[in-house]
Structure to design on (523 residues):
């Protein structure tokens, strides 16, 4: 007999409550896309170079980009948005820019829909606290442009809802077989999303069994056995070789953990964003003290696992950055979803506060994205001054991105690849994570990420210096230099001729015929 898994009044539908209605929830899903309607390119941190990679992959083996980039097709755990964009491009004839914009615009609604589906399956109704989680669809990972991870995160929430539905309506074999097939697909979207799925489903299944009356040891053991078939992608990674994903691992600092908590809503205005964090902390205090609000183990356990993983992981793992930070928002979302009130009608005040919170954050994000997009549009005027199909050395000032409401300019140079078919030095090339390898003769260390990023002396990103980069790059390899976040007069080299300047960005034409061996010194 299949167990329902929802006890002591959890099947109460809350009929007549406005936040339970399907039209209202559908409106929440659709409204979550509003901030992305106006910008032509989503103003996310990494988006420019992501879009560059989409064009390189879409035109693999074709001129002009085939001269500069080689594509080595392989099954890697980082292909979510890439796969959909390529399908839209090749099957439906969409351009890379509109296809990428459409896919990225769908990520927040997908996340909100997943939260709604999961909350309804776990509680048998929509708890008012769930709406507090909706703004985290625009959490720090999305703001930074980690679009594959965020796409996988949305799929994880939907998959968790499906797991609970199958647990209620089908036997265990259905879940085990279906999720053994779904897990490798989610791994292809993003490997970290697959890891989240395994950890969260394990915790959710253990919590569900405890709610049914099982003791914790037996519940944990049975949950572990149930999710074991979902570990198939791990076998693929082992088979592919332990060194397939290479890169630095480390930087576990308590200061990083505290910073990720404080920047949970970092967007544009520090006071506004910190007020949102304060609001959630106050809600956590209310839940602890309240007799009417409690936490369901079915979602509380995976949330706790998420917080533990967040604390345990370092900042870097095999070349992937911000690994620990990415774990915090989904854990917070699950924690918010786990809260329920008794009876449901007692949640009117909470529902009103939650929808105000959601609408206020949505309005702020819409304004912030509009301002960021205007700044990006001004910077992209430089593309008209670049040689079409040529080679461009991009040097972006990372120090300018250190303030709270940063303009997010470090990766905008990638759009020149999309719009002008040029080579830029911003592509990620971590083995086992990316498919693209630059092959520009003479570029040396200036052929890939992070050579386009100029960090301040002593900064955590490395010792790269602006003057050193201008002095050391090979004049025979590049046609132009595009400096972003540096004033026009900062570049002092007689073989670099300014051809465009605006604000703190400039484009310089390189005088050819002078190779690295006789490049002039910076004065």
């Amino acid at each position: 007999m299949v167990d329902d898994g929802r006890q002591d009044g959890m099947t109460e539908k809350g009929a007549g409550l406005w936040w339970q209605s399907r039209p209202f929830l559908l409106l929440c899903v659709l409204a979550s896309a509003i901030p992305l309607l106006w910008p032509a390119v989503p103003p996310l941190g990494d988006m420019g170079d992501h879009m560059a990679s989409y064009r390189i992959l879409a035109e693999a083996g074709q001129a002009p980009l085939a001269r500069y980039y080689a594509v080595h097709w392989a099954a890697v755990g980082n292909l979510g948005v890439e796969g959909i964009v390529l399908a839209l491009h090749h099957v439906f004839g969409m351009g890379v820019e509109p296809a990428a914009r459409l896919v990225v615009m769908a990520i927040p609604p997908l996340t909100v829909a997943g939260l709604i589906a999961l909350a309804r399956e776990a509680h048998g109704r929509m708890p008012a606290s769930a709406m507090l989680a909706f703004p985290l669809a625009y959490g720090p990972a999305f703001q930074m442009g980690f679009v594959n991870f965020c796409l996988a995160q949305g799929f994880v929430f939907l998959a968790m809802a499906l797991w609970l539905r199958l647990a209620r309506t089908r036997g265990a074999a259905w879940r085990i077989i279906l999720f053994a097939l779904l897990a490798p697909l989610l791994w292809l979207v993003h490997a970290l999303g697959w890891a989240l799925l395994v950890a969260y489903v394990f915790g959710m299944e253990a919590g569900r069994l405890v709610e049914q009356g099982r003791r914790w040891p037996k519940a944990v053991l049975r949950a572990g056995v149930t999710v074991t078939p979902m570990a198939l992608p791990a076998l693929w990674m082992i088979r592919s070789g332990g060194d397939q994903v290479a890169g630095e691992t480390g930087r576990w600092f308590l200061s990083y953990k505290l910073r990720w908590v404080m920047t949970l809503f970092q967007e544009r205005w520090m006071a506004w964003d910190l007020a949102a964090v304060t609001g959630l902390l106050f809600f956590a205090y209310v839940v602890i003290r309240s007799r009417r609000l409690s936490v369901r183990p079915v979602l509380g356990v995976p949330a706790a696992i998420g917080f533990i993983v967040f604390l345990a992981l370092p900042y870097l793992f095999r070349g992937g950055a911000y690994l620990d930070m990415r774990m915090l928002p989904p854990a917070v979302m699950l924690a918010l979803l786990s809260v329920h009130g008794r009876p449901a009608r007692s949640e009117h005040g909470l529902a009103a506060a939650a929808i105000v919170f959601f609408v206020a954050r949505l309005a702020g994000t819409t304004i912030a994205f509009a301002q960021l997009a205007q700044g990006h549009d001004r910077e992209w005027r430089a593309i008209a001054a670049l040689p079409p199909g040529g080679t461009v050395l991009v040097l972006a000032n990372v120090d300018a991105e250190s303030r709270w409401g940063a303009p997010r300019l470090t990766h905008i140079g990638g759009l020149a690849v999309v719009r002008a078919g040029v080579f830029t030095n911003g592509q990620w090339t971590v083995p086992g994570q990316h498919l693209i390898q630059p092959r520009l003769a003479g570029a040396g260390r200036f052929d890939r990420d992070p050579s386009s990023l100029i960090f301040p002396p002593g900064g955590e990103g490395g010792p790269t210096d602006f003057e050193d980069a201008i002095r050391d790059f090979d004049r025979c390899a590049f046609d132009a230099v595009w400096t972003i976040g540096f004033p026009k007069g900062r570049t002092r080299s007689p073989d670099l001729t300014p051809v465009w300047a605006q604000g703190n960005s400039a484009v310089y034409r390189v005088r050819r015929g002078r190779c690295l061996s006789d490049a002039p010194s910076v004065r």
